[in-house]
Predict the 3D structure of the following.
Amino acid sequence: MINLKEMTFEKLEPEIEKIFDQQNEDTFDQVPERNAEKIVIGAYDGEELVGGIIGNKQYENVHIAMLAVKGGYRGQAVGSKLLKEIEKRAREMDIIHITLSTKSYQAEGFYKKYGYEVFGTLEDMPIKGVTKFYFHKRLD
């Protein structure tokens, strides 16, 4: 009989990673290297942090987990510079795809302007009345 138990992330995560590693070994002739790492870039006005971007690299993909610009700096190309920089770094790492998500009250048009395509939407996510958009951009 299978029993479910709550446990800590620190204990469970490495065990799940082992299962994924075995799946990769069973699926691929040559196991792709995961090289999970973060790409973290801040945008500064002098000493003040005015925006930033965080990307999670895994295999040949970068997922932009966060991109934000302080209100007074929007419309001054800060977000554009951050997005272009992470794309530049991703290309240097031979990344194939960049993925991200945004909400209907955030930056849907911004990402489309830079060639990102919607591959999915989810209405009422994370709250009723909001739509979440899932984007990707192929870099090759």
About this structure: The first helix runs from residue 9 to 27. The two ends are 48 Å apart (CA to CA).
